[in-house]
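Handout, page 2. Input:
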Amino acid sequence: MDSLKIGNITLPHRAVFGPMAGFTDAPCRRLMAQHGAGFTVSEMVSSRALVYHDHKTVSLLKAEPNGAPYGVQIFGEIPQIMGEAAAAIEEYEFDFLDINMGCPAKKVNRKLAGSALLQFPDLVEKILKEVVNAVDVPVTLKIRTGWDKANRNCVQIGKIAEQSGIQALTIHGRTKECLFEGEAEYDNIRAVKQSISIPVIANGDIDSASKAKKVLEYTGADAIMIGRAALGNPWLFQAVEALVEHDTIIQTPSLREKCGHILRHIQELHQFYGEQKGYRIARKHVAWYLQGIQPDSVFRQTFNAINEPKEQLIVLEDFLNSILDKEKC
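Output:
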C-alpha cells in the first residue's frame, strides 16, 4: 500500500488517533504513537483563548517528540479570529493544523462553533480560507455528515474544503443531531470520497482491526481515525496496521506486557501533571484499561479515593500483580 501524504507530511500508518477533550494530552498522544498511530492531535482548543493568550489553553498544545506527525486542533466561529489564532500558535512545534467542525457539544454549538457551522456553508468557506492563508503548515478539517438527518451536506462541505485549500478531511459518520447514537453512516463518507480528491479519513464506530479494514474497503477512505476504542487499548493501532497494511493478524501483547504499559502510562501522567493533578487524571485512564483486562468496581472505588501519586502506583501495581498471579493458576 502506497504511503499517505497530507500536504508535505507522510503518515507512517493509516490508523490515526483522534482528538478527545480530557484525554489526548501529551503522555497519551506519545503512547498511542509508540503503538502505531499514524498521527495524533491535541485536545480541541478555543481560537478566542489562543488570541487572548490564555495560559491554560496554550498548555494543551505542548508537543513532545513521539515518532508520528502531531496536529493542533482549534475551533471557533469568527473567520478573522480563527486566522489570528492559527498564526499566533504557528511558533509551536506541530506538523499540521486541524479545524473542528464536528463537535456536537452544546457549549460549543451555542457559540455557532463545532458542528453548528455545518448549517452555514458560506461561513465555513470564509473560516477555512482565513486559516489556510494564515499558516504555512497543512490545514485539515474534521466534520460530521451534517447538522441533522434532513440536512446532510457533507459532500458540499467536502467540496468547499478542497477548494479552500484543506489538505485532508476527517468525517465522523453521524450528524450533529445523532450525537454518538445509532450506526455510523459509511455511505455518506463513501459519497464524499467519491466527490473530492484530497485524502479522506473515516471516523466512527471503528473498534477493531477487522472493522477498520471493512470501513476502508467500503468507503474508499485513505485512512481511519480511532478515538475512544483506543483508550485502554493502544495496541489496537498495531493490530490495524498488521491487517490493513500487511494482511496479517498479530497477537495482542501478553497480560504482563499490558500491565507494564499501564504502570508506565500512569507514571508519565504523574510526571506530566505533577502531584496536585496527576492522580486525578490517572483515574479515568485506569478505568479504561481495566475494562479490557478485569473490570472491578470495588478496586476502582478504592483507587479513586487515593489522592497521593506514590500510593496510587503501589495500589495499582499490587492489583495488577494479583491478576497476573491468578493467570498462573
